Amino acid sequence: MTSRIQLIEKIADIWVNILEDPSHENGDNSTQGMLIAFMDMDLKVGYKATKRQLTVFKRQLVRILLEGTGKIRTVVDYHPCKALAEAAEMAGINESLFSIKTRVSSRNDRIYIKRGYSDNGHAIMFDGTEWVDANE
């Protein structure tokens, strides 16, 4: 069985990876939707979180999630959920860097990851030595 701390630390790692390579895909293929996605991308060009900011973000996100009980659910629709926003603020990371329509959650020792609107998502689990694909 995977411990709560293992799940939370992995979820924080996943969010760090997402912040390093954000997605701008919002699932809206209309002219207006594509324009919004393009403007979102344009606002983020040249802005990257520093290694120090990402380290602080991860540490703060772990702390925040450990304070909670029950299911772990972190979500960005167009804005990050409270836990992600608070960790980002403490790290000095602009909220606009988060990938829209993205969620990372845990249930039954698995972590579920969905990046962007059209991503079908996938699950990972800890097999005792490493995190592996749980969709098989």
Question: Short description, anyone?
Answer:
With 136 residues, the chain is of the alpha+beta class. The protein has a single domain (4-133), classed as Actin, Chain A, domain 4 (Alpha-Beta Complex), CATH 3.90.640. It has helices spanning 4-20, 31-44, 51-67, 82-91; strands spanning 72-76, 102-107, 110-114, 122-126, 131-133.
Describe the structure.
This protein is of the alpha+beta class and 136 residues long. The chain is 43% helix and 18% strand. The protein has helices at 4-20, 31-44, 51-67, 82-91, and strands at residues 72-76, 102-107, 110-114, 122-126, 131-133. The chain has a five-stranded antiparallel sheet with strand order 1-2-3-4-5, with helices on one face. Helix 1 packs antiparallel against helix 3 (51-67) and helix 3 (51-67) runs antiparallel to helix 4. The longest helix has 17 residues, at 4-20.
Please tell me the overall pLDDT: 86
Radius of gyration: 15 Å
Strand order in the largest sheet: 1-2-3-4-5
How many H/I helices? 4
Biggest sheet: strands, sense, closure?
5 strands, antiparallel
**Would you identify the regions where 5 or more consecutive residues have pLDDT less than 50?**
none
**Proportion in β-strands:** 15-25%
Distance between the termini: 18 Å
The global form is globular
- What is the CATH topology? Actin, Chain A, domain 4
Q: Tell me what the CATH architecture is.
A: Alpha-Beta Complex
So what's the CATH class?
Answer: Alpha Beta
Helix-strand pattern: HHHEHEEEE
Strand elements, count: 5
Q: Please give the domain count.
A: 1
- What structural class do helix, strand and pairing data support? alpha+beta
